[in-house]
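so my prof wants the structure for this chain in the tokens format not the other one, which i didnt know existed until like an hour ago. anyway here's the sequence
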Amino acid sequence: MTSKGHKTELDLNVPKETMLTSSTIAQLVIQILKLLLFQRNQIPLVYTTLKLFISRWGNQESYLSEELIEIENFEFHRYRLNILKTFHGIEEYFNIIKQTFHSNKIIKSVRILLGPTAFTPKEVYTINIPTVFYDHYDETHAHVMEFVTRKLLRSILLSEKLGETFVNPLRPTNVYMDFEVESPNGSINEYLDMKDFCEFTQSCKQIILNIKPESEHFNNFACCRKLKVFEEINEVDSEKKIVEKYCSLDFKWYEINQVIKGFKDNKKFNIWKLE
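here's what i got, hopefully its the right format
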């Protein structure tokens, strides 16, 4: 995809001996999404706090039907209903991210788009994904990756390059997500639809986040490599073959067929109060 808009690029360096598995990279993408939702004013509270308040609201299902809302409290309940819809949309995005990275398809990049439509975003955050290794156990590397993720999120927050973008407020709008995935023979999952290429407007701000491992020699990591049966030993790809295979793949864009609708705090209702 080409664009005439302003671009800002930031390298997120992953320390040596940090293994990126499908689960750990999915969690990193989820954490970046959480950060952007709050920093770009799509939710008024950090995600963890938002989830805490919603968990204290009691029976959520009673708020999911407008037919149950009393007339005198309609505006309050409608506001809470919109909050719940946004929250459930965010949770659904988390599940789709996990499913997509666990599909064993090679994902080249992920895009988070903020704007009125997916074709006219005001801001686009592209996360370039390095090689993900599927022959290591996720749980073995999860603890180390939690520390690394916090470090990378701080790098985003404290980046002078992104400072100008984060300082300028963005009103609540729609949030979309795309995946650049190796072209499959069929659908990846029921939540992703193929997306045509388009050109962003000149006013669109594009932020590119490059996840860059400081060491690419992962084949020497035998910490928890899943054992191969005898017949498969000679079929294990060398590092060179992995790179050659990656470069020869045909990638296409897929979009999540659901939208997250941002919302702003309505101080009229004092809704963020723990009873």
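also thought this was worth mentioning. Strands lie at 6-14, 107-115, 123-128, 174-182, 192-194, 205-213, 251-256, 260-261.
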